[in-house]
Amino acid sequence: KMTLDDGTELSPALGIGAFADKTLVHEGQCTKVDPESDPAVVGLLGCGVMAGLGAAMNTGNVSRGDSVAVIGCGGVGDAAIAGARLAGASTIIAVDRDQGKLDWALDLGATHTVDASQVDAVAAVQELTGGFGADVVIDAVGRPETWKQAFYARDLAGTVVLVGVPTPEMTVEMPLIDFFSRGGSLKSSWYGDCLPERDFP
Rounded to two decimals, what is the model's pTM? Predict the structure, then answer.
């Protein structure tokens, strides 16, 4: 059990949560970094950046020329956009309901934006991909409605990556025939399927 000096028991989120002034972390979950690095920057690598980059590059296996849609342009979604760009995706579609986040996504590598508060996100992604849907759709929100958008916004042989963390009570109700009639892959991504010793030089 992890405890503070006074014996208060800690309950980490996702096994390592560090949204606290103090936490205990197993050595296997630590990565050595340059001591000259800014902790405020390096600290982002261990969760949001790793999760987003890895969702695109590892779990989604984005490759040169792919079309990618990222639903949710917070820290994890923005890292997924950057990962898709690094992997060579030719079309990177940022989907969000906040225009400020969409503008930021363009700076990180998105080639197109979709304001889901104004238009049907699925139809917009399909239109931007020649009517086919994206090769990889990353749900960085983790809500039933965004997962369904991801499912229907992908190409018939495309991949959905769920990296946004749903709450335990959330469910998705969909016709089973929709799963049967589509190929492709449905994946979840824990911390971007990253291995720090491999992915953090």
Answer: 0.87
